[in-house]
Structures are given as structure tokens and as C-alpha cells.
Amino acid sequence: NLRSGRSDSIGLVVLDVTNPFFTEVAQGVEDVAAEDGLAVVLLNSAERSDRQRRSARLLAEQRAAGAVVMPVDGDTADLLWLRKQGVSGVLLDRGDVGPEVACSVSVDNLAGGAAAARHLIGLGHERITFLSGPEGLEQCRTRLQGLREGLAEVGIDPEAAVRVVHTAQLNAESGEKAVEEVLAGGPGRRPTAVFCANDQLALGVLKGLGERGLSAPSDLSVVGYDDVAPASLVHPGLTTVAQPKYELGCAAMRLLLGELHDPDHTHERVRYTPELVVRGSTAVNR
Ligand code: RIB
Description:
The radius of gyration is 20 Å and the shape is elongated. Helix content is about 40%, strand content about 20%. It has 2 domains: about 10-105 and about 245-275, 3-Layer(aba) Sandwich (Rossmann fold), CATH 3.40.50.2300; about 110-240, Response regulator (Rossmann fold, 3-Layer(aba) Sandwich), CATH 3.40.50. α7 (about 170-185) packs across α8. The protein has helices at about 20-35, 50-60, 75-85, 110-120, 140-155, 160, 170-185, 200-210, 245-260; strands at about 10-15, 40-45, 65-70, 90, 105, 130, 160-165, 195, 220-225, 240, 270, 275. The chain is an alpha/beta fold. The chain has 9 helices and 12 strands. It has a 6-stranded parallel sheet with strand order 2-1-3-4-5-11, with helices on both faces. It has a 6-stranded mixed sheet with strand order 7-6-8-9-10-12, sandwiched between helices. The N and C termini lie far apart (about 65 Å). Alpha-D-ribofuranose binds near residues 170, 200 and 225. The site of alpha-D-ribofuranose has 11 residues, from β9.
């Protein structure tokens, strides 16, 4: 056993098991865990705090050696609670804890938003809708801020250029439902582009456009976020801000192993930069 009295399993608490983003992260966690003979127990919080809490209790009861946690609403209380119970925990993707508290792995959401902005500006888009997840999701706010800063850098007033539409969830159904509101664009300003807070939303938008006899990029340029596998399988392919999903999972698991094997280990903060992948869903604004 890695730590006396602990099992040879670690918990991976993901936010939405139906989203391929989390599948790729899980693959990375699992590959690195397997090298060390550890089993990964998958727990799905389904973006619900009560389920996250229950997962933490279960892992503590089962004496898991450690946990990789993607916290609901960035709330790190359950991760901190687990650590107090002697379950080493690494924070992944959302939320923030200082390196004095735990290791963490994240991607620069500000840079991601700015990359989308540069791409859309280059294509001549100055009326952009940001299709966000639920209000209050810090990650969405930071991606939006990146978009605004990217526009401001080239002298475009973000207040005038960007309209924000919120959805109930970061899933395709919410994206599909939001199309009407995205296209409405507010008085006298139908957008020429939509930047979605994740690919699930963007894929839903592509579907919703099709249902109205419209399509990307001729009626609306569409940009997603994540670069999940379906982004390159749909037609047109989805232009998106790619996150290193598999690497995120590997890095989180390596940090966890570092902590499990070395009692004198110092916590690290690993941060990746996302990269824009240009496909067919965006085009020059004519
Ligand atoms: O698609 C799911 C989103 O939530 C991703 O963008 C990822 O960053 C996660 O937190």
C-alpha cells in the first residue's frame, strides 16, 4: 500500500460524465494510475454539490489513497475536507487553491478567450455573442474576460461588440435551445459570430442552426472551447480553443503520485496554455 491503511485505488470526481472533455481527462488519469498499479474509481458529480459531497464521503470511507477532483462551481471545500481525512487530493481544471494547500492543474482561460477574440477579429467579426454556461461559473467569466480584453487590445469596444447569453448547463441541449436568443442579438444587432464557453454548447448551436435551415459559417461563425473529439467529426468542423485534456489528466495523476510517494513533497501548480484550432465553422464576415 502507498500509505498504510489505504486502499490501492484513487477517486476521480468529474463534473459531467456525458461530456467527452471528461472522458479524455479520465483516460490520462487512468493511464498514469495504471503504471503505478492503482485503480481509478470514477465518480460523477453531475455538476451537483450534494453529489460531490457524497463522493468525498465515499472516498474517505473506502480509504482511497487519493483523489483528483474537478470541483462543482469551483468549490474546493470537499477537496480540503478529504485532505483532512488523510486522502491526498489534487485539484483539476476548476477552482483555485494555493500551493500551500494542494497541487493543482489548470488551463489559462484568459488566454483561451483572447485567442478566440484574435481569430474572430482577423475575420472581421465585431458583433459577437458569448454563449456562456450558468451565471456564476468562474471559468466562463474568465473566458469572456479574455474575449473582451482581446477586442479591447485592437481598439474595439467590448461593451458594444459583445453580448452575453447564459444557458442552464454546459451541454448541447442548452446550446440548441439558445440559438433563437443568440440570433436575436438584441435590438438591431444580429451577431455575425458566436463564441461558446464549451464545445457541447457549440455543437448544440450547429444543430439548432440546421433546424432553422441555417448553417455555419455562412449565417453565423461558431467557435467552441475544449476541442472534444466530435468537434472534428461534424461538418463543418468546429473551430475551437483546444485544451490539453489528456495531458491534464496525466499531470494531475503524476502530481498525486508525487504526493503519495514522497511525504516531503512540495505542492505544485501546473498551468497549460490552450491553442486555437481553426476548422470550417468560422469564416470572413462579408
Ligand atoms: O466542457 C466542460 C468544460 O468544463 C470545459 O471547458 C472544462 O474546462 C470544464 O471545466
